[in-house]
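Your task:
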Amino acid sequence: MAEEAVAAEHETVEEFVINEEGGVPADNEAGYSSDSESDSESDSESDSESDSELQQQVEALTEQLAQAKDQTLRAHAEMQNIKRRSRQDVEKAHKFALEKFVDSLIPVVDSLEKGIESAGQAEGSHEALVEGMNLTLKQFLAAMEKAGVKQVDPVGQPFDPNFHQAMSMVPNPDMESNTVMNVFQKGYTLNDRLVRPAMVVVSK
């Protein structure tokens, strides 16, 4: 019995091989190695998934940043357009605020011119009256010109439909075709914008 016990113990000892470094049996070392490789593969897969998720997040943030930048640029451009339009509206308001007032003064100028013409054709001496009326008319037109009003008197000029209104066309061999021969009523502009067209007779 003692010999059998010794033999069994001897066999058990032979089944174990002591690892040189850690004193771990060979079979257990193989098991640890397998577990270590499995853990390493798992960690590698986890790292790969983390890198992929991180890359997706970076791409998403980059796209969001690009969209935000584009929206900012568009908003800035729109603000600049609004400022420019507002500035233009203010400038136009300043330029043409007097348009209605000028339109009401034009008949006064017409009356002065007709009065001067009638006084010149009347019998008797009206030189002093005509001179006074002419002086008044000149002062009146000078004051209007300071406010940006100009008189359109296109006799002898080519017909311009932007500033002239043709009342009739008359043959005239002494003038080039489409030339203003006579002005029935003078026109006016305010800062180069037409207030009233000149009514004219055009040669043909």
In short: The chain has two domains: 1-97, 98-203.
